[in-house]
Prior knowledge:
By secondary structure, this protein is an alpha+beta fold. About 35% of the residues lie in helices and about 20% in strands.
Amino acid sequence: MTNHPIAATVRSSGPGAVARWTEQGIRSLSARGEPRTAPFTVRAPASSANLGPGFDALGLALDLWNDLDVDPTVAEDRVTIRGRDADLLRGEGGEPHENLVLRAMRQLAEAHGWALPPVGLTFRNAVPVSRGLGSSAAALVAGLIAGDAVLGLGLSRDELYGHAWRMEGHGDNVGAALYGGAILAVPGVPTAIQLLGHPKAADDLADLVAVAFIPEITGATWAARAALPERIPHTDAAWNLAMTAGIVAAFLTGEREVLSASMNDRLHQPYRARLFPHLDPVSHAATAAGAIGACLSGAGPTVLALTDGSRLASVREAVSSAAAHTGIPGETTTLAITRDGASISPA
């Protein structure tokens, strides 16, 4: 998916709003709200996409957060990067990663016909970069929320989601980062569908946690997508449809058995396993130890297992042991599922 299918929900404003945004269906505003003129902080969570079969459609927000401190009082742009993988983001020892926060802010300003004023940005990163835990989505979402605040556009969360989908190319990670919880991203639907909204299901899955093996090696989404075939057998497509529907039903009803039966994939994981030889042994070890299911997190290389609290210790030990046997260095950690999405608050 290259074009955002729900651009009609995104608004345009400003005296210089350019024609190409109008052509995408972005409606005009005659005025904007009050820009934030005092420093503020934006938080955005990590996320895991796909959950096995839900390729580019399912996302899960995780309780691991990036913080972005924004100072709109500066006279010129200033960027400071701290925390996890700061060296990668700064480009130490190689090419720097594109600053997705600043890119999102500038693209949002351009989409609404405004110039982005100078901003001071301080990144306090906790989400691993290029590991399949939604670091780019967290950056885009933080940038959009920050840009909306600095420009005073007053966009709704759904409108920010429309911008995020257009920039990212799909709605799974950005939907989870914006709304929190487990979400389904459907082309043509202008909001991420919340899958943990039913009280009974939320209660039944309240102790659901993730165990993640995060390799030291990084992965590239373009390489993971390049590993996929142009065509797949019809039987595999039908099988994946049933698995994805099963995950959606499980989150809506709280049925753990359905969730366990559904976290399987034939669309992308068998092909990406060639890039990540730890995927199968770590996944199998997790489920053998009692995990509800295990999968490649996003485009990898992280492997994510979902379990309940009673089996957490055994699943974590199994994942750590299996990862060690593969000889691939990394860390095994426990991540709670967060029902909260990205937020903004005074500094």
